[in-house]
Amino acid sequence: MLGEFEQAVLFALVRLGPEGYGATIRREIEQRTGRELSISATYVTLERLEAKGYVRSRVGEPTAERGGRRRKHFALTAAGRKALAHAYRSFSAMVEGLEDEFETS
Amino acid sequence: MNDSRHDRPEAVPRLARWLAGLRIPAGEREFAMGDLEEEFKSVVLALGVIPARRWYWRQALRSCFYATPPTPKPASNPPLPPGETVREIIREGRLAVRQLWARPLISMTAIVTFALGIGANVAMFTVAWPMLMAPLPFPDEGRLTVLSLTYERKSKQFRNPMSRGDYLDFRNASSFASMSAFNQFKQEMNLTGRGETDQVRVGFVGAEWFSVLGVKPVLGRLFQPSDNGSSSSVIVLSDSLWRQRFGGDRMIVGQQIRLDGRAYEVIGVAPSSAGLGTVEAAAWTVQPIDPGNRMRGAYFLGAVARLRPGTTLEAANQELAAIMARAAVEFPQTNKQWSGARAELFRDVTTETSRSSLELLLISAGLVLLVSVINLTGLQLSRYVDRERERAVRRALGATRWQLARQVIVENVTMAAVGGACGLGVAIATLQVLESIAPSFGWRHLVPASRPLMTAFAAAVTLAAGLLAGAVPAWRVSKTNDTSVLQARAATAGRHSHRWRTLVVAGQVAATAVLLIVAAMVARSQLAVLSINPGFDFRNGLAADLNPPAGKYESMADITRFFNAVIERVEALPGVERACVINEVPLDGTAIGMTYVPEGTTNQVHAVPSTITPGCVPVLRLSLLRGRWFTNNEPQPSIVISASMAKALWPDGRDPIGLRVHFGVPTAPLLTVVGVTGDIRGGSLESSYGQQVWAPQSLGNFPPTRLLVRAAGPGGINAEPVRAAVRTVDPDIALAHVRTMDDIVGRATSARRFALFLLAGFAVVAVILSAVGIYSVLANVVGQRTREIGIRLALGAHSGQVVRLVVTQLSLAVGVGIVAGLWSARALTRFVASLLYQVKPADPRFYVAVAIVVTVIAALAAWAPTRRALRIDPKAAMSVE
User: Fold this and answer.
1) Confidence of residue B633 (pLDDT cuts 50, 70, 90)
2) Alpha helix (H) ranges present in B192-331?
3) Which of B20, B111, B553, B613 makes an SS bond possible with B548, Cβ 3.0 to 4.6 Å?
4) B764-790 pLDDT, tens per residue?
5) Which tens digit of pLDDT belongs to each residue from B231-273?
6) Which residues of B touch A67 (CB under 8 A)?
7) E strands of B484-598, at which residues?
8) Residue B323, C-beta contacts closer than 8 angstroms, at least 6 positions apart
């Protein structure tokens, strides 16, 4: 079972590819859904996803931009991709034919 | 430019950075903070520094408060619909009641504890609320003020009545929309003609008085400005006099009654509360105010006034000060002695004396409730471990933490409700007792709050007490760790319950200590006051009011003849040593001050005058320091002054015998000093104001109104023969308010005695509750550690070590409690101050004494459980599971 934010993060990772990291993931979700996500919630979700085996992480070099801190990149695993695909298929199946009801503006 | 500041990028706000990092998982913190800093820099470039800082703060706060993304919960109990919740609570309530039945001893303890705590508070509230909070029976009391002159003595300011001239000056003040005078002296007049002759207290008030106060008539009408003419003799009865003496006769309006032989027409009936705080009397008649009579030098008027809308009290007082300053210049002889005039809010003046005592009593009652609540919390926590398994099972069956906590709270509120119902009964009973003994404390106006209000307060306190008592146990319960409890055996007390026990005992000890200290200080003050030497001695005697009516007794000679006849008849009675008359009994009346001016000066010296017949000297055992007392035939007006008065009149210490003073103003007649007597405490036992002047009847200034009769032996005087003797002189005059010196002193100390009575009661309750609390905590500790103690005993520990095991924690708790209690008591001293006499709040003797007492109580409470610990049979203990 994927939670709402977990789904959003996984979708963002699909778009961002293996270069995705906390800041870009968060920005992507904010820009697309219009919902504000806190940095802490983002990382908690990423931690959970990693624990479930849906993403893996890789630590990069420290940069001056980040005050000397390193960057952690996240990427989808195969299991993550499968889970996301499953969620997508369930959603589409349920939504089929109901688009008019839910299309606003 | 070489300015390095411009080269360095703006830094991230440090506090926000700390906040942001709080809720980020530790392992990710570096990465998350790096992300934030990176984004921050791009926002700086895009929008500027200030928007960037704002953005950063938003991110930090959101990170702090919205750190958990919602996750789908594992399959759990769906939340119950609201109606179901109420039914659950009711079910839990019924279960709680069943459990109360099941454990009668614990339940009784809890219920009684609640009842005492709640009952004490409800009783106090019912008594104090009307005094402190109830609105005055006058509309718009925020604008209602009382005016008085002020003078300073020993750097304290005192109030004084004003003269006609002063009142007329004030009446013109623009700060006040309306004003009315009243006579501070109420007269006891003899009501004749309808049944038995009775003495009735009559007040003299200005024609506008009722309308300034905003009082509405119960029957008929009240005074109007047209009633101001001195020829009209109209009277308004109080509601209570109308009902008690005239049977509530609605035809009373228009009828005439005779007071002191003079006819008055009853024009209406006013509520009895109309005189509250100013002229408390059974009836009121008009005090004529003649605009042409601006006499000064005679101070007997008070004034009530309403502030003009838009005028503040401060502005009014400033205007009064200006008026007084002008008067001091224009009339130096009379007005220089006053430091000014004061307008005060009506409520402040009337509740002044009782307020801080009441506040103290309310706090004390609160402390008793605190002890009760702590006691019960302790009881609950003690049983916590016993019921841990039960809760763990419930939890495993799916009850949420909230449901478990709720059960505890419902239990407590149920117990509180039962206790509260009993407490309400306790309060009602206490009130009955208070009402019956209040008169002996001088509290004639014990008007309790209404029953509905009292019940509402009781319900509120009960709910609060139940919630408070249940709060800590409920919180503990909601943190139960299921699996470990189910698997483990009943463990020995953990670190947490150790801490709670300490707090419980310390809290109770502290509250009890505070109550004991306060009660001890007030008790000591009472003893000190009672041991004051009043400067006169009136044991074995009685005092009564005696007022020859002005109509029948016109001249001084008539009055003198009347009193001499009464004295003669009374002295002829068996058992009477001497009798005399005086204007006010010392300690028993309003001590009004007068001014005296030494001959040849313009100094105004303040003193309290008394008019006496020569018999008063032996009756009151007045002393004589120099010269002699006056007799009935003096060639010139003669007075005797007190030692302090002599020093005040002639500070150079010369012999005052033969010197003369003017009465009131330098143009008034001269009085010759023929003797010096010791100071007496005339106004109150506690005040050491000693400037007094004693004058014979012939001077006529303050006519005698009280008869004093002294018994020849220790037995006291029977009032009936005295009454009969007075009747033989004049049957139209009644002897009223017969009282002894003990009654008088009792009333003079009544406020303190009442407070002491209640404080002592509270302290006793607190001591009992604390002792019970300490006992139960220790009993529980011993019960839980039975196994451990048994093992130690088996291993050869001797009794001292066992005792130490049981008692160490208790000693620490008691110690902490004593320290906390003593420290809190010091914080409360400002409330106690008004009740203290010659007791310094910081006096260490009280604190030491109370510390010892509390330690002894704790030791006594600990005795039984400790003994039980020593008697534990190691074999039996070790087989306890």
Assistant:
1) confident
2) 209-213, 239-246, 313-330
3) B553
4) 888 888 888 888 888 877 777 777 788
5) 668 999 999 888 888 888 888 898 888 887 788 999 999 998 8
6) 12, 33-34, 37
7) 541-546, 576-582, 594-598
8) B169, B170, B173, B341
Mean pLDDT of A57-62: 90
Q: Is the pLDDT of residue B2 over 60?
A: no
- Cβ–Cβ below 8 Å for A39 and B72: no
Q: Which residues in chain A have Cβ-Cβ distances shorter than 8 Å to B24?
A: 39-40, 43
Longest CA–CA span in chain B (Å) reads 117
Min CA distance, B32 vs chain A (Å)? 7
Q: Tell me: pLDDT of B482 over 60.
A: no
Is residue B592 within 8 angstroms of chain A, CB to CB? no
Task: With a cut of 70, say whether residue B869 has pLDDT above it.
Answer: yes
Q: Phi first, then psi: what are they for B201, rounded to 5°?
A: -85, 125
Separation between Cα atoms, residue B457 and residue B449, nearest integer Å: 10
Q: Does A86 touch chain B (CB under 8 A)?
A: no
Q: Six-digit token pair at B637? A: 């007006």
For residue B296, the model assigns a pLDDT of: 84
Confirm or reject contact between A95 and chain B (CB < 8 A).
no
pTM above 0.95, yes or no: no
For residue B465, is pLDDT > 80?
yes
| Residues of chain B neighbouring A69 (CB-CB closer than 8 A) | 30-31, 33-34, 37
**Which sign does the torsion angle of CA B228, B231, B232, B236 carry?**
positive
Q: Which of B25, B34, B67 sits opposite A38 (nearest CB)?
A: B67
CB B485, CB B389: distance < 8 Å: yes
What does the angle CA B427 – CA B431 – CA B435 come to, to the nearest 5 degrees?
175
User: Is any Cβ of chain B less than 8 angstroms from the Cβ of A29?
Assistant: no
Q: Kindly state whether B59 is in contact with chain A, defined as any CB-CB distance less than 8 angstroms.
A: yes
What count of other Cβ atoms lies within 10 Å of the Cβ of residue B295? 11
AA identity, residue B82 = P
Task: Give the residue from B205, B178, B170 showing the smallest Cα distance to B288.
Answer: B205
- The C-alpha angle with vertex B744 and arms to B743 and B750, in degrees rounded to 5, equals 85
CA distance B583 to B593: 13
Place of tokens 């009346």: B589
H/E stretch holding B677: strand B670-677
- Within B331-400, residue ranges assigned H as helices are 332-335, 346-384, 388-396
CA dist B305 and B303 (Å) reads 6
Handedness of CA B701, B644, B588, B713 (dihedral sign): negative
In chain B, count of helices (H) and strands (E)?
A: 27, 23
> Which residues from chain A sit within 8 angstroms of residue B32, using beta carbons?
22, 39-40, 42-43
Q: Which residues pair with B264 in a beta bridge?
A: B257
CA–CA dist B416, B300 (Å, integer)? 55
Spatial separation of the C-alpha atoms in residues A25 and A20, rounded to whole Å: 6
Q: How far apart are CA A38 and CA A58, in angstroms?
A: 22
CB of A35 within 8 Å of any CB in chain B?
Answer: no
Instruction: Measure A62 CA to nearest chain B CA, in Å.
Output: 9
Here the tokens at position B505 are 């005992």
Q: How far apart are CA B340 and CA B297, in angstroms?
A: 15
Amino acid at B819: V
Question: Measured in Å, how far apart are chain B's first and last C-alpha atoms?
Answer: 83
